[in-house]
C-alpha cells in the first residue's frame, strides 16, 4: 500500500488536511487553524468519511481550546458548532462528546490545550489500530473465497462510495480487507461504484486503489445488480456512517439497492466499521437516523476535468428542473450478512452486537 499520504496531519500546531473535493485531478491541502475552519471543512466535504470526520472534529476541539486559551466555557460553544456540522455520521458527535468529556474531567490547573491535543491524537491512533484489525478479519473472508476459485481467478469484490484511508486512517473500513488481501498476494479485483452524485467511488476509491496498484474497474451505480446476476461479484463490502444497536446500516445513498441485489443473488453483503460508528441509542435506522439532505446542485451538475485541463462543472439537467439530494440511505439489518469490526465479525443483530460490544451500551 502507498503509505506516503494520510488524510490529515499536524504541522506547527495546525491541522493539515487533504482537500478531497480536488481529487483525483489535483492533490491540494488546506490548513485548519481554528475550530471554524474544522467545522467548514466537515460541512463542505473538504474532508469526509465517518472516521476522518470524527478525527477532524476531535482536532477541531483542540483548535477551539487553542483559540480559547484553554477556557472551557469558551471551548464548549465552539465545539457545539463542530458537532452540528453534518447530521448523519455518528463519529462526528462521538468524537466531540469524548473530547468535551475528557476536558470536563481534567484535573484543576490542567493545560486544556494539551489535554485536547493528546486526546485527539489518541483517537486517531486508535483508528489506525482498528483499521488494521478490520483488515485482518475481513481478509479472512476474501481468503476463504480465493481458495474456492478455479485456476487462481480473482476474487471480485464490489464496494460503494469511499471507505479507504481517505475516510478512516490508516486503511479505512471497507477497503482495509482489500489492502490486506493485496499485501498477502491474494488475487483480487474490485468493482468500484461511481457513487453519484458526488462520485466518491470514481474520484476517491479508484484513486486510492490506483495508488496501491490494485486491479479495479469503475462501473455505473446501476451496474452492480447485473454483475451479481452474471456471477461476477463474489462479495460486497461497504463502509457506514452509523449502525444502530439492531444492525441497521446508514451509508452513502445507493447502498440499500446494492444490498437488495446482493440478497436476491445470494451474494454476501458485509459492512465494515470501527466500533465508534455504532449508535447504541437507537434501534430503528429508517425511523430514527436523520438523513442529510444536500444541495440540489450536486445532482444537477457534475464536476470533472474539462478539455482545457481545468476542473469545472457542467449542468446535466434542463434549467427548469429541480432535484432532491439525499446523502444517505438505510439498509435494514436483515439484508446485512455481517459486520466487520476491529473486534471480529459480528452478526447484524441486536443480541450479537450486544454480546460483542456490551461496554458500549449505555
TrEMBL record:
One of its GO terms (molecular function) is S-methyl-5-thioribose-1-phosphate isomerase activity. Substrate binds at residues 48-50, 86, 200, 251-252. It is an enzyme of class 5 (isomerase). One of its GO terms (biological process) is L-methionine salvage from methylthioadenosine. It holds the Pfam family IF-2B. The active site is at 241 (proton donor). The record marks 161 as: Transition state stabilizer. The keyword Ubl conjugation does not apply. Its EC number is 5.3.1.23. Keywords: Amino-acid biosynthesis, Isomerase, Methionine biosynthesis. Signal peptide: none annotated. Pathway: Amino-acid biosynthesis; L-methionine biosynthesis via salvage pathway; L-methionine from S-methyl-5-thio-alpha-D-ribose 1-phosphate: step 1/6. It catalyses: 5-(methylsulfanyl)-alpha-D-ribose 1-phosphate = 5-(methylsulfanyl)-D-ribulose 1-phosphate. It comes from the Bacteria. The keyword Isomerase applies. Catalyzes the interconversion of methylthioribose-1-phosphate (MTR-1-P) into methylthioribulose-1-phosphate (MTRu-1-P). Belongs to the EIF-2B alpha/beta/delta subunits family. MtnA subfamily. This is Methylthioribose-1-phosphate isomerase. The gene is mtnA.
